[in-house]
Structure formats: structure tokens, C-alpha cells
């Protein structure tokens, strides 16, 4: 398939973008690391070599108060310029263009020196901000302009002003967080004054031949946010003030509507970009859950935007653009929007990477050199760890034989793809199917291997990636046919009654509960998803929110855990709240501090704080952890065979594809 709109150049007057793909801003965590800019340079260079038309860096603060956290990256002094030149040179040498995002976090700052329009604490930060004085506002405007001036000196092609997602500028614009009574508060004109003043000050400092992107919050998705009329008016004012490109911002970080997780439908918010595009003359960029070239092309061909922004998809595959242009879209390592290694890491102040691409952010460390001494390797288990190892090892030049007793590759991914909202895992399996084929891996499916059989085939090394088995609970009555494992429910599709108890509230317990309470996936029906989450597409209300539409309950589910902590506390930082909200709205009862005792015709006997009770349920589904399948490894070792163990076979604490894929890649890099 060709993508004529995606690869059409965009003339900005003083410069031209070679295509319509923008790599959206994403903080990697290297911005604050020792020698981090050397690693960032390689990270961005590979995306430029991969064909991206324009890159936007992770957010860089214009002053100390605007930093994400005390160590946060800042560009405000001449001595900061040198390290940024490493990035711009690397990108320009690769025939790319790059803009610096100027990000002032405002009340979202994770430090006690935060400032905002008003002294109103954010629900996601422990620090109450100080309200900026009029003098402080003027200084902040100058700091933005100075940052842009230094960015130009460092060789950037432009800047992006972060005016959305609930950060400082957005905090001034929205009545929710601006309670001022001076010239920067009250009326719409006053609340938007700082945004316009910042753009004008930047344009004055950088001249007319420098890209200025403004990331405008088109949907606040919080109460007392902006109206549609205000968003349109501000967009026009920004165009007049000298903005080159208008980027789409969706939702504040504190919004209770998901905007980026995997259950969000693809191109869920391009409709608002289309509305704004019809109101302005400058190019409009759209964003959020665009992860295939087909989706990107459809957006552009339908006139919904002029440019598509993708951040996480270019973590997942740095060659996304080149592959699309070469007609190899089926070879793209598609972003599944899991957030587990990228945003979850960032919000925990760890280095970002990617679950499906462990090289992301580790381009200078995780290097795969062609082997000198070719080995004959057997890999047992075609789950995440086995697929990753086999691909990398074969690409390095080893002879790799991948075995699995199942008739298809994917392992636990084949279970994950059946969960409502996790359909993206189909893409990962498609990608590995093609990659294994291209790498020349010898695939042996539907074959169960023995230690003796493997030993007799003369392998130099056997990589055991046999995964896990569900942990069984040895309790009275748990041998009853009505007690099921999660594999019985998700993989084998055994019939489940209307009243169900789910034991274990880790990721699997939540997945099972979702599968039992959602008759169909909202992710596959955009209109239903928008209604379910209360997104006001008519934009009649401030913030574009309206009452959510719940589905009628299909089962009575009780989700339980032994721990006394909040149910679901161990879920992902950026997605856990979504899963909890979905189950709560489906009527799922969540219990903690539960002691499991027995199952009988009376029901499931449990005790909480010593108080015994019986749950009247048709079925019990056990999701109480896993055990490593490492018997084969022990048998091989006893025969004197060289063995390595990866994935769930080595650690079965929780189904962890992120660790499994990285472990497979790291072993393949050194074997």
C-alpha cells in the first residue's frame, strides 16, 4: 500500500518538511543522566535516519521553577547550549529536523518551588504552587523567549511551546486553575494573555525563519476547562501572533478520561483537530493513538489534519517511516500503547524504553554485532522472551531453531489479545511472525521437546523460555469443576456463570474481571467509547465532558486479594486507574485482606479480619500467581547441556513481557 498524503512534503515558507510525520515530544529520562545527551543524540539520530519529517524533543524547562523535578533538564544559560548541539548535529547529519519543546510544568512540578496562575494544588503533585506575581509572569515570558533564543543558537530548527496537558500555560488559560483578578485572570482575553505574550516574545527573539509550534489544549477533559469557542479564538490569536504549526493537546494529566492507554481507540481524537483545522490557515498537527501508516494516511486523506504526531510508535520502531515508504508496513513493530516501559517509567522518574523494543533509549548500550563464531542454538518456547531472543540472535548470524508445543507463536500474548481493550497484541504477534521469517529462524511448532531429544541434535546451547504455569490453590473443594484457572477462562473459553469470584488482583485478575464483565470491547467502537467515557463531541460543556454512559452489568464479579493494600495498587502508573475505574463501573466488588478457606455448595468461604463469610458464586477463577516451567532446564543441565533460562521460566513473579523481551534481547546481544 502506498501513502501519498503521508509522504507529501509540507512547505512552511522558510523551510520544508519532507513528509507529514512528526515525532511527538516524549521525555526519555536521559535528559538528566550523566552523559545522557550523548545517548539522546543517538536516540534522535536513529529516528531521523528512520525517515521522520520533524522531531520534537522531550520537555525542557525555561527556568528552575518550570522543571519537572529538581534535577529536571533546563535551557536558560549559554553553558547549556553545548550539549544540545550534540543532538541537533546528529539529527541534521541524518537529514532530519528537530524542535526543542519548552515545557514549564507549573503546578505539576514535583518540587516545592512550583508556581502557577493561582495557588491551587494539583491532585497529582504533593506540592502546593505559589501564585506567580505580575513581575514573575513577565520574567517567565522572558525565560520562554530566552530559552527559544538559546535553542536556535544550539542548532534547533524550532521550538514547541507546551500549552496543553494541564501544564503552566494551560493553567492560566482554564478557569479551573486561574482565579486571578489582575490582567492575567478573569476574562478570556486576560487568561490567554500569557500564551500570546510568550509566542510574540519568542518570535521577536528568533526571527521569522524559525519554527514555532504551539501545543494547544483542544480538549481539557476536566471540569471548568475551556469552551470550544475559546479554543477556536485562541487558535486564531496564536496564528496571528506568529505560530507556524498548531499541535493538538488532549486532556490534562489529572483528567479521569483515558487518552493514551491501549484501550483508547485508534485516532480517537482526530475529530477535534479537524474542527480546529477548519478555523485556521496554519497547518494543524493531530495526535494520540495513531500507530499505523494506514491510520495516519486516512487522517490526512480525509482532511482531518495536515501532520500526524506519533511519539510512542517511534519508540517501538525507529524505522516506522522508512518501512511505510518502502511498502513494508507489515514489518513495523507496532506500538501497543501499554505504557509499561515508557510513560510508566517516566512518571516513576526512571529511564523510558519500550516493551516491544528494548533498544529504545539504549541505542548505545544494547548493540547487536554480527557474530564471528556462529552457533547452533535451540530456543524452547515461542512466547515473548523466546521470540525476542530468536529474532535478535538470528539477525546476528546464529543458526536458531525455535520450538513450541503450541501450534502458533506468541505464548502469553495470545491470551492478552483476547482481553477487551488489548487487541493491539495481535499486531505484536504479526510483527514477530514476519521478523522470525525474515531473520531465517527455523520454526518448529506443535512439537514437545525432551532433554534427551535436544541433547542428541548437537546444539551448542539451549535457551529455555518455557514460561509459566498458573499456581493452583490446594484448598478444600478447589478440585471442583467449578473452580477454574485463568487459562480455562481466557484461553480455553470454558463456560462461566453469572456470579463469579476472582482470586488474585494482579494484572491477570483484572484482565479476567474485564473479560467477564465486558460483553464487547469499547476499543473497537469509537462512538461507544466516547459515550462510555463521557467525551462531549458536541462540545456544549466546558472541558468537553458530559455524564458517562455505563453498560448494563452482565455478571456479578468479586475480585479479591490477600494483601491489605488498595486493590490494583501494583498495576501500571498510567493505566491502573483506568482498569480500576472500568471494573468499578461494571459493578465489580473489590476486596482486600482476604483469607481464602474452601469451596463447597455453601459457596466460597473467605475470612476478612477474622470474620467468616460465604460468597454465593457459580464459579471461582484462580489468578493467584504463577510457577516457572523450568523442569526442562534442570534435565538439560543434568545431561551436561549448556543452558540459559529467560522469561517466565527464570522469574514468574507476574506475567512481565517487558522484562521477558528485554532479557531475551540482552542475552542475544552477548551470546
UniProtKB/TrEMBL annotation:
Which keywords belong to this entry?
Flavoprotein, FMN, Iron, Iron-sulfur, Metal-binding, Oxidoreductase
Q: Which Gene3D superfamilies match?
A: Aldolase class I, FAD/NAD(P)-binding domain, NAD(P)-binding Rossmann-like Domain
Iron recorded as keyword: yes
Q: Which domain of life is it from?
A: Bacteria
Q: Which GO terms describe its molecular function?
A: 2,4-dienoyl-CoA reductase (NADPH) activity; FMN binding; iron-sulfur cluster binding; metal ion binding
The FAD/NAD(P)-binding domain sits at: 376-636
The record ties this protein, via SUPFAM superfamilies, to: FAD/NAD(P)-binding domain (SSF51905), FMN-linked oxidoreductases (SSF51395), Nucleotide-binding domain (SSF51971)
Query: What biological processes does GO assign it?
Result: fatty acid beta-oxidation, unsaturated, even number, reductase/isomerase pathway
Cofactor(s) recorded for this entry are: FMN; [4Fe-4S] cluster
List, for all copies, the residue spans of the domain called NADH:flavin oxidoreductase/NADH oxidase N-terminal. 6-329
InterPro entries from the UniProt entry: Aldolase_TIM (IPR013785), FAD/NAD-bd_sf (IPR036188), FAD/NAD-binding_dom (IPR023753), NADH:flavin_oxidoreductase (IPR051793), OxRdtase_FMN_N (IPR001155)
The UniProt family comment states:
In the N-terminal section; belongs to the NADH:flavin oxidoreductase/NADH oxidase family.
Q: What is this protein called?
A: NAD(P)-binding protein
